[in-house]
């Protein structure tokens, strides 16, 4: 069985820039809360109602930018790949499809 690697959310989102340190810290705490129970809704994942409310407020904040999250994750992935020090295996579909036997198919 493959061993799962857990992510340090502070390290994973180190490049995050919402132009608010407070919002960035809250987002990291939000991700730490949600990753503990990924099968649960926001209201079930938090330990307290205040924590649940904080998650919802973070996601609804006007400075919250989804594209910034994607950018920060991309940078984190590049850092992890660079730290491997060698070739990075990539998933590729090598399946071939042959329609030669289908006479009515163009």
Task: Give a written overview of the molecule.
This protein is mainly alpha-helical. 52% of the residues lie in helices and 0% in strands. The chain contains five helices and no strands.
TL;DR of this structure?
This protein is mainly alpha-helical and 106 residues long. The chain has helices at 9-12, 21-36, 42-45, 49-60, 66-84. It has a domain at 14-84.
Q: What is the average of the pLDDT values?
A: 85
Q: Give the % helix.
A: 40-55%
Strand % is under 5%
The main β sheet shows up as: none
- Residue stretches low in confidence (pLDDT < 50, at least 5 long) are none
* Tally of separate helices: 5
Rg calculated over all Cα atoms: 20 Å
Straight-line distance between termini: 45 Å
Q: How many β-strand stretches?
A: 0
Question: Which key phrases capture this entry?
Answer:
106 residues, mainly alpha, 0% strand
SSE layout and pairing:
Layout: H1 9-12, H2 21-36, H3 42-45, H4 49-60, H5 66-84
